[in-house]
Model the fold of this input.
Amino acid sequence: MRTKKHTLRNKIIIWALGFALILALLVAAASFSLSFRYLKKNQQQAALTNIQLLGNEIDDEIRAAMTFANWVCLDSTLGGYLLNVENYYATNEQAGRKLSVTTWDHLNNEYNIVGVRDIVNRIIVSTPSGDQYLQSLSGGDTQSVADTAHKIMESEYFSDLISTRGYTWIGPIINPLMNSGNDEVIPVFKTVQSPSSYETIGWIYMDIPESRITSKLKSFNLEDDEALFITFSGGNTFKFDGENLIRADKQGEVISYVMPSCDWEISYLPSEKALRNRMKYYGLVIFMIVQIIVLAGALLTFLLHRTITKPVLQIVDRLDLIGAGDFSRDEKIEWDNELGDIGKGINNLAENVSALMEKRLLDEKAKQDLEYRVLQSQINPHFLYNTLNTIKWMATIQGSDGIADMSTALSRLMKNIAKGTENLITLRDEFALVDDYFTIMKYRYGGTISLDYITDDESLLDKKINRFSLQPIVENAIFHGIEPKGNSGKIVIHTLKKGDKLLIEVTDNGVGMSDEAIESVLNGESKTSTEFFKQVGTYNVNQRIKYTFGEEYGIEITSKLGEYTTMRFVLPLDYEEDKK
Done:
C-alpha cells in the first residue's frame, strides 16, 4: 500500500523545490559575498583616489616649504651672514647691523617671491648660539617675542630635531613664540652647514600653521562613522575631528597613502553605514534573483509532474488492474518516449501472462487426460497379474517349480508397475524389485549369471531411492555388459556411506565401456534398456535423481574395457521429501 508521503510525485516535488531552494541559497550567498567584496573594493578604491588627491595637495605645499628651507641652507648670502655676523658685531657693531639688514632684505624678498608666505608663517635663520638671527613673518596676526632665537632653543623639541639630518616631522605643537593664545603650528628645524667644511654654521626654524593642513582636510566630507588620520614621519598620529588634529591611534580597517615628499601618511576609515546602505540595494536584487530561481523550481516541478509523475501514476494504475486480473492491452500508456517503452513492455507482459495462463490450463487438461489414459493402461497389468497367478497355481499343482517361480516374480513386477505412482521407496523395497527381475533373468540365462549384495550397514536399507532406479541399471549390466562377453557373469550391488552421502555401486564383470560410450549414456544419446523398460533408461534414472535430490547427486560411471563397469549412485544419506 503506497502512502502519500512516499509517492513519486511528492519526492519529485521535494527534490525539485529542494534543489531550487539550495541553488537559490547558494546563488544568494555567492552574490551577497561577491557584491559585498565588489562594493567594498570600489569604496576602498574611491577612498584611495580621494586621499591621494588630498595627500598630493598637502604634499605640494610641504614640498614648497622644504624647497625654501633648502634654498636657505644653500644660499651664499645667508651662508656669509651666518659665518661673519658675530665677528662683525664683535669688532664693528655698525658693520654688523648693515650686514644683518642687507641679508634680511635678501631673505625677505625671497620669502615673498617664492610664494611660501601663505604656507609658512615665520622663518628664522640663526647662528648656532642664537645671539644673532634673522626673522621673516608672513604678516597679519603673526606675533613675535623678544629674544626669539633663544626662546626656540629653549623648546623641548629643539635639541632632538636639530640633531637629525633631513626633516623630522613631529606634528602640531603649541607655538613656542606666541605670547598668548593656543595656536598650534607644525615646526620645521634644519641645520645649516658650511659648503667648504660641512661645519654647522647655523640653523633654520619655520612654523607651518595647523590650520593650513586642517583647511585641506575640511574639503574631505566625513560621515559620522568615517575618520581621517595623519601620521607624521616622526611617528606621531593625529585624528582630524572636523576642526583640529587630535593625538590618537589609528583604528579599524583604514586605507593609507604616503606622501612622496614629506613621508607623511594620510589614512582614511571608510563608512560602514554607507556600505550597508548600498548593500541594501544589492540585497533587493539578490532577493529578486532568489525568487526567480524558486519560481523556476516550482515551474520545473509542474513540468516534471506533467511529463513524468502523471504517466508513472497511469502505469501504476495499469499494474494494479493487471494484478486484479485485467490482462487486456491498454494503448493509452504507450507514449512516444522512454515511459512509453515501459508501457509497451507492461502490455506485452500482460499478454504473455495471459497466454501463459491459457497454456497452463491446456497443459493441466492434457495432464488429466494423460492420467486417465495411465489409469486405463493399468487395467492390462492387473489382468496380466491375475492371469500369472492362475499359471503359478497350475504349475505348482503340476510340480513345475521353475514356471511357478518365474510366474511369481513376474506377477510381483506387474503388481508394482500397476500400484500407484509413488516416486521414493526404501532401498530394501527397491532391492526386492531387483530380485524379482533377476529371478526371471536367471531362468532365462540358465543360471549363468549371479547377483550378490554387499551392505556395509543394514540401516542403509531404510534410506530412500527413486522407484525403479536399480532395475534398469541391472538390466543394462546383463544385456550390454555380461551377455556380449559370451560366458557366465556376476553383478555385485555394494551399499555404503561416505560422509553425508549414500553410495550404491552396481558392478558387473562384463565387456566394459569406453569413455565415449560413458559420455553418450549420461547424455541420453544411447538407449541402453530393453523394450520392456524403455521409459526408464540410465539417462532418465540419472535425471530423476537430479530432479529429486539436486544437481550434486546422480549417477557416475567408471569402467575398464574387457574387465568391468561400475554404475555408482550418489544419493543424500538423510532426505526428507517435504524439503523439496
In short: The longest strand covers residues 184-193. The longest helix spans residues 8-74. Confidence is low (pLDDT under 50) at residues 374-380, 528-536.
